[in-house]
Design the sequence.
């Protein structure tokens, strides 16, 4: 994982589950700016038909997690390889995502 909690992060995690339904729409420049180096690398290795969905979904996930963790989206310590569930470090909460056509849940 790129970033580490290192005990310094004090997430303001909600006491209940949160759901977001987001359209899978984001400008390519925004996606690239939000992804980690590792996510950009994973994205390039995917078939072209899956690259946009992977990149946009991870960028949107970073955007919704950032305020909860008190971090800029690019610093969210998300580990999210293609085909695997996204993970946050211990103590930072749990996260999951699902795709439904052109939406992210």
Sequence:
């Amino acid at each position: 994982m790129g970033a580490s909690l290192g005990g310094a992060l004090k997430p303001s995690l909600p006491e209940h589950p949160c759901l977001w339904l987001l359209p899978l729409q984001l400008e390519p420049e925004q996606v690239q700016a939000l992804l980690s180096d590792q996510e950009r690398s994973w994205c390039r290795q995917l078939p072209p038909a899956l690259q946009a969905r992977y990149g946009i979904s991870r960028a949107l996930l970073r955007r919704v997690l950032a305020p909860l963790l008190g971090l800029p989206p690019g610093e969210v310590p998300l580990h999210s390889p293609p085909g695997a569930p996204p993970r946050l470090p211990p103590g930072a909460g749990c996260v999951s995502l699902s795709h439904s056509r052109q939406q992210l849940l």
